[in-house]
Amino acid sequence: MIGSSNRDTKAPHVAIVGGGVAGIAACKALSCRGISCTLFEGQPRLGGLWVNAYPGAASQVASLF
Predict the structure, then answer these.
(1) DSSP secondary structure code for residue 54 in this structure
(2) What Rg, from alpha-carbon coordinates, does the chain have?
(3) Which pLDDT belongs to residue 38?
(4) Phi and psi at residue 40, to the nearest 5°
(5) CA distances from 27 to 16, 19, 52 (A)
(6) Backbone angles phi, psi at 14, to 5 degrees
(7) Which long-range contacts (CB under 8 A, 24 or more apart) does 19-22 make?
(8) For the segment 5-58, what is each residue's pLDDT rounded down to a tens digit?
(9) What Cα–Cα distance (Å) separates residue 42 from each residue in 10, 20, 38, 47, 48?
(10) Could you tell me where the DSSP H helices lie in the chain?
């Protein structure tokens, strides 16, 4: 039959590699649109380069400096 499809019509589940700012933003954007996702991060904390070592202090400085 023309136009028919046996494809599964369920929404995809997305894997995001990297828990930096871009990975977190992508996961939030997908979740807001009803798309499930799993965020994978190799470090103990999320934030990527923006994680700082000063508990309780917010900083907009990359952790490499």
Answers:
(1) S
(2) 18
(3) 96
(4) -110, 130
(5) 7, 9, 22
(6) -105, 135
(7) 19/43, 19/45, 19/46, 19/47, 19/48, 20/46, 20/47, 20/48, 20/49, 20/50, 21/47, 21/48, 21/50, 22/48
(8) 555 667 789 999 999 999 999 999 999 999 999 999 998 888 887 776 666 666
(9) 29, 11, 13, 11, 10
(10) 21-32
Neighbour count for residue 45 (Cβ, 10 Å): 8
Give pTM, 2 decimals.
0.66
Nearest to 23 by CA among 3, 1, 53, 45: 45
Which among 49, 62, 54, 61 has a CA at the least distance from the CA of 18? 49
65 pLDDT above the threshold of 50: no
Residue with tokens 């590699």, as numbered in its chain: 17
